[in-house]
Amino acid sequence: MTTPEANRLKLLTEHLRPGTPLTSGDLRKLGISADLTTHYVKAGWLTRLSRGVYAKPGDELSVRPSVLALQRTYADLYVGGKTALDWYGYRQYIAYRPILRLYSRSTIPRLPSWFTERFPVSYHRKRLFEETSPRLLFVRPFKDRINEPNVSEPERAALELLSDVGVRQPLQEARELLESTYTFRAHVLQELLQHCTSVKTVRLCLQLGKELSLPWSNELDTSALPRGSSKAWVSRGPDGLLVLK
Protein backbone atom coordinates (compact mmCIF):
# COMPACT_ATOMS: atom_id res chain seq x y z
CA MET A 1 0.00 0.00 0.00
CA THR A 2 1.25 3.46 -0.84
CA THR A 3 1.92 5.53 2.27
CA PRO A 4 1.16 9.28 2.62
CA GLU A 5 4.92 9.88 2.95
CA ALA A 6 5.55 8.08 -0.34
CA ASN A 7 2.87 10.16 -2.03
CA ARG A 8 4.46 13.37 -0.75
CA LEU A 9 7.87 12.26 -1.98
CA LYS A 10 6.36 11.49 -5.38
CA LEU A 11 4.78 14.97 -5.46
CA LEU A 12 8.10 16.52 -4.52
CA THR A 13 10.02 14.77 -7.30
CA GLU A 14 7.34 15.82 -9.79
CA HIS A 15 7.68 19.47 -8.73
CA LEU A 16 11.49 19.51 -8.67
CA ARG A 17 11.78 20.89 -12.19
CA PRO A 18 15.29 21.61 -13.48
CA GLY A 19 16.45 25.14 -12.66
CA THR A 20 13.48 25.88 -10.40
CA PRO A 21 13.78 26.72 -6.69
CA LEU A 22 11.02 25.82 -4.25
CA THR A 23 10.03 27.94 -1.27
CA SER A 24 8.66 26.74 2.07
CA GLY A 25 5.28 27.93 0.86
CA ASP A 26 5.54 25.74 -2.25
CA LEU A 27 6.40 22.74 -0.07
CA ARG A 28 3.52 23.40 2.31
CA LYS A 29 1.11 23.36 -0.63
CA LEU A 30 2.43 19.87 -1.39
CA GLY A 31 1.68 18.81 2.18
CA ILE A 32 5.37 18.77 3.13
CA SER A 33 5.91 20.11 6.65
CA ALA A 34 9.01 21.85 7.98
CA ASP A 35 10.08 18.64 9.75
CA LEU A 36 9.62 16.58 6.61
CA THR A 37 11.55 19.20 4.61
CA THR A 38 14.45 18.87 7.04
CA HIS A 39 14.30 15.10 6.62
CA TYR A 40 14.42 15.42 2.81
CA VAL A 41 17.45 17.73 3.07
CA LYS A 42 19.29 15.23 5.29
CA ALA A 43 18.32 12.39 2.95
CA GLY A 44 19.66 14.25 -0.09
CA TRP A 45 16.32 14.80 -1.84
CA LEU A 46 16.58 18.57 -1.40
CA THR A 47 19.35 21.15 -1.17
CA ARG A 48 18.81 24.11 1.15
CA LEU A 49 19.81 27.33 -0.63
CA SER A 50 18.89 29.58 2.27
CA ARG A 51 16.21 29.80 4.91
CA GLY A 52 12.95 28.80 3.27
CA VAL A 53 14.38 28.18 -0.24
CA TYR A 54 15.30 24.78 -1.67
CA ALA A 55 16.28 23.18 -4.96
CA LYS A 56 17.10 19.89 -6.60
CA PRO A 57 20.57 18.70 -5.49
CA GLY A 58 23.30 19.71 -7.92
CA ASP A 59 20.87 21.80 -9.98
CA GLU A 60 21.84 25.06 -11.70
CA LEU A 61 19.07 27.60 -11.21
CA SER A 62 17.46 29.35 -14.18
CA VAL A 63 16.77 33.06 -14.00
CA ARG A 64 13.04 33.21 -14.74
CA PRO A 65 11.91 30.54 -12.24
CA SER A 66 14.23 32.13 -9.68
CA VAL A 67 12.69 35.58 -10.19
CA LEU A 68 9.25 33.99 -9.87
CA ALA A 69 10.29 32.51 -6.52
CA LEU A 70 11.46 35.96 -5.38
CA GLN A 71 8.12 37.45 -6.38
CA ARG A 72 6.33 35.08 -4.03
CA THR A 73 8.13 36.89 -1.21
CA TYR A 74 8.19 40.42 -2.67
CA ALA A 75 4.81 40.88 -4.33
CA ASP A 76 5.51 44.09 -6.28
CA LEU A 77 8.96 43.05 -7.54
CA TYR A 78 9.15 42.82 -11.32
CA VAL A 79 11.58 42.67 -14.23
CA GLY A 80 11.79 45.96 -16.10
CA GLY A 81 13.86 48.38 -18.14
CA LYS A 82 16.60 47.03 -20.38
CA THR A 83 16.10 43.44 -19.19
CA ALA A 84 12.40 43.42 -20.06
CA LEU A 85 13.18 44.86 -23.50
CA ASP A 86 15.79 42.15 -24.01
CA TRP A 87 13.34 39.40 -23.03
CA TYR A 88 10.87 40.74 -25.59
CA GLY A 89 13.55 40.76 -28.29
CA TYR A 90 14.53 44.44 -28.29
CA ARG A 91 18.31 44.29 -28.07
CA GLN A 92 21.47 45.44 -29.79
CA TYR A 93 23.57 42.42 -28.92
CA ILE A 94 23.43 39.37 -26.65
CA ALA A 95 25.50 39.82 -23.49
CA TYR A 96 27.25 36.81 -21.98
CA ARG A 97 26.00 37.57 -18.47
CA PRO A 98 23.54 40.44 -18.74
CA ILE A 99 22.63 42.40 -15.63
CA LEU A 100 19.12 41.60 -14.49
CA ARG A 101 17.14 44.82 -13.89
CA LEU A 102 14.60 44.43 -11.09
CA TYR A 103 12.21 47.14 -9.90
CA SER A 104 9.60 47.61 -7.19
CA ARG A 105 7.48 50.41 -5.73
CA SER A 106 8.29 49.49 -2.13
CA THR A 107 11.75 49.25 -0.62
CA ILE A 108 13.36 45.83 -0.41
CA PRO A 109 16.15 46.00 2.19
CA ARG A 110 18.31 43.39 0.49
CA LEU A 111 17.84 40.72 -2.13
CA PRO A 112 18.68 37.26 -0.76
CA SER A 113 22.21 35.97 -1.24
CA TRP A 114 21.03 32.72 -2.87
CA PHE A 115 19.82 34.93 -5.74
CA THR A 116 22.56 37.59 -5.96
CA GLU A 117 25.34 35.00 -5.83
CA ARG A 118 23.95 33.33 -8.95
CA PHE A 119 22.73 36.23 -11.07
CA PRO A 120 24.24 39.68 -11.79
CA VAL A 121 21.41 41.92 -10.64
CA SER A 122 20.59 45.61 -10.32
CA TYR A 123 17.65 46.49 -8.08
CA HIS A 124 15.93 49.89 -8.07
CA ARG A 125 13.02 51.25 -6.10
CA LYS A 126 11.21 53.34 -8.70
CA ARG A 127 7.91 55.21 -8.79
CA LEU A 128 8.01 56.37 -12.38
CA PHE A 129 4.23 56.31 -12.77
CA GLU A 130 1.28 57.44 -10.70
CA GLU A 131 -0.24 54.10 -9.73
CA THR A 132 -2.91 53.99 -7.04
CA SER A 133 -4.08 50.39 -7.42
CA PRO A 134 -2.05 47.35 -6.31
CA ARG A 135 -1.86 46.27 -9.94
CA LEU A 136 0.95 48.03 -11.80
CA LEU A 137 0.34 49.60 -15.19
CA PHE A 138 1.29 47.20 -17.99
CA VAL A 139 3.20 44.76 -15.79
CA ARG A 140 2.10 41.16 -16.19
CA PRO A 141 3.45 37.60 -16.39
CA PHE A 142 5.93 37.29 -19.23
CA LYS A 143 3.97 36.80 -22.46
CA ASP A 144 0.90 36.02 -20.31
CA ARG A 145 2.20 32.54 -19.61
CA ILE A 146 1.51 30.54 -16.47
CA ASN A 147 4.42 30.25 -14.01
CA GLU A 148 6.32 33.18 -15.52
CA PRO A 149 7.55 36.22 -13.53
CA ASN A 150 5.94 39.64 -13.74
CA VAL A 151 7.63 41.76 -16.41
CA SER A 152 7.12 45.27 -17.77
CA GLU A 153 5.48 45.25 -21.17
CA PRO A 154 7.80 46.69 -23.86
CA GLU A 155 6.34 50.22 -23.80
CA ARG A 156 6.73 50.54 -20.02
CA ALA A 157 10.20 48.96 -20.16
CA ALA A 158 11.29 51.57 -22.73
CA LEU A 159 10.20 54.44 -20.46
CA GLU A 160 12.01 52.84 -17.52
CA LEU A 161 15.11 52.67 -19.71
CA LEU A 162 14.77 56.33 -20.73
CA SER A 163 14.29 57.42 -17.11
CA ASP A 164 17.83 56.13 -16.40
CA VAL A 165 19.47 58.13 -19.20
CA GLY A 166 21.99 60.49 -17.67
CA VAL A 167 22.21 58.35 -14.55
CA ARG A 168 23.22 54.76 -15.36
CA GLN A 169 22.03 54.43 -18.95
CA PRO A 170 24.04 55.79 -21.94
CA LEU A 171 21.89 57.92 -24.25
CA GLN A 172 23.33 56.40 -27.44
CA GLU A 173 22.40 52.86 -26.43
CA ALA A 174 18.89 54.00 -25.48
CA ARG A 175 18.55 55.67 -28.88
CA GLU A 176 19.70 52.50 -30.67
CA LEU A 177 17.24 50.35 -28.71
CA LEU A 178 14.37 52.69 -29.50
CA GLU A 179 15.11 52.47 -33.23
CA SER A 180 13.46 49.03 -33.29
CA THR A 181 10.27 50.06 -31.45
CA TYR A 182 8.22 50.88 -34.54
CA THR A 183 5.61 48.28 -33.48
CA PHE A 184 4.99 49.91 -30.09
CA ARG A 185 1.32 50.48 -29.27
CA ALA A 186 0.58 54.21 -29.24
CA HIS A 187 -2.43 53.87 -26.91
CA VAL A 188 -0.28 52.05 -24.33
CA LEU A 189 2.44 54.69 -24.51
CA GLN A 190 -0.21 57.42 -24.27
CA GLU A 191 -1.57 55.99 -21.01
CA LEU A 192 1.87 55.44 -19.53
CA LEU A 193 3.11 58.90 -20.47
CA GLN A 194 -0.02 60.52 -19.00
CA HIS A 195 0.78 58.83 -15.67
CA CYS A 196 4.55 59.44 -15.86
CA THR A 197 6.03 61.46 -12.99
CA SER A 198 9.28 62.29 -14.81
CA VAL A 199 9.23 65.26 -17.18
CA LYS A 200 12.65 64.24 -18.47
CA THR A 201 11.34 60.80 -19.46
CA VAL A 202 8.28 62.23 -21.24
CA ARG A 203 10.32 64.79 -23.18
CA LEU A 204 13.04 62.29 -24.09
CA CYS A 205 10.48 59.78 -25.35
CA LEU A 206 8.79 62.40 -27.53
CA GLN A 207 12.09 63.78 -28.81
CA LEU A 208 13.57 60.40 -29.76
CA GLY A 209 10.28 59.23 -31.27
CA LYS A 210 10.26 62.24 -33.56
CA GLU A 211 13.97 62.12 -34.39
CA LEU A 212 13.74 58.42 -35.30
CA SER A 213 10.45 58.87 -37.25
CA LEU A 214 8.75 56.12 -35.25
CA PRO A 215 5.10 55.49 -36.23
CA TRP A 216 3.75 55.72 -32.66
CA SER A 217 5.20 59.20 -32.28
CA ASN A 218 2.65 60.74 -34.67
CA GLU A 219 -0.26 59.00 -32.92
CA LEU A 220 0.36 60.47 -29.46
CA ASP A 221 -1.79 63.32 -28.14
CA THR A 222 1.05 65.41 -26.78
CA SER A 223 -1.30 68.10 -25.43
CA ALA A 224 -2.44 65.63 -22.73
CA LEU A 225 1.08 64.75 -21.56
CA PRO A 226 2.98 66.18 -18.55
CA ARG A 227 5.87 68.00 -20.23
CA GLY A 228 6.54 70.62 -17.55
CA SER A 229 7.22 74.30 -18.19
CA SER A 230 8.29 75.87 -21.48
CA LYS A 231 11.91 75.97 -20.32
CA ALA A 232 14.38 73.42 -21.66
CA TRP A 233 15.32 70.51 -19.37
CA VAL A 234 19.13 70.43 -19.17
CA SER A 235 21.36 67.81 -17.59
CA ARG A 236 25.08 67.08 -17.78
CA GLY A 237 26.01 63.39 -17.66
CA PRO A 238 28.61 60.92 -18.92
CA ASP A 239 27.39 61.50 -22.51
CA GLY A 240 27.76 65.27 -22.21
CA LEU A 241 24.99 67.86 -22.13
CA LEU A 242 21.42 66.63 -22.58
CA VAL A 243 18.95 69.31 -23.61
CA LEU A 244 15.25 68.47 -23.86
CA LYS A 245 12.98 71.22 -25.15
- Stretches where pLDDT falls below 50 for ≥5 residues? none
SSE order, one letter for each helix or strand: HEHHEEHEHEHEEEHHHHEE
- End-to-end gap: 77 Å
Largest sheet: 3 strands, antiparallel
The general outline is: elongated
SS elements, strand count: 10
Note the total helix count.
Answer: 10
Number of domains: 2
Output mean pLDDT: 88
Radius of gyration equals 22 Å
Q: What would your notes on this structure say?
A:
By secondary structure, the chain is α+β, with helices and mostly antiparallel strands. It has two domains: 4-55, no CATH class; 63-244, no CATH class. 37% of the residues lie in helices and 15% in strands. It contains ten helices and ten strands. The chain has helices at residues 4-15, 24-29, 34-43, 63-73, 81-87, 113-116, 154-163, 171-178, 186-194, 199-211; strands at residues 22-23, 47-50, 53-55, 78-79, 100-104, 121-125, 139-141, 150-152, 233-237, 240-244. The strands form four sheets. It has a three-stranded antiparallel beta sheet with strand order 1-3-2. Strand 5, helix 6 and strand 6 (121-125) form a beta-alpha-beta unit. Helix 5 packs antiparallel against helix 7 and helix 7 (154-163) crosses helix 10 (199-211). It starts with a helix and ends with a strand. The model has no long low-confidence stretch (mean pLDDT 88).
Write the layout of secondary structure elements.
Elements: H1 4-15, E1 22-23, H2 24-29, H3 34-43, E2 47-50, E3 53-55, H4 63-73, E4 78-79, H5 81-87, E5 100-104, H6 113-116, E6 121-125, E7 139-141, E8 150-152, H7 154-163, H8 171-178, H9 186-194, H10 199-211, E9 233-237, E10 240-244
Parallel strand pairs: 5-6
Antiparallel strand pairs: 1-3, 2-3, 4-5, 7-8, 9-10
Helix pairs in contact: 5-7, 7-10
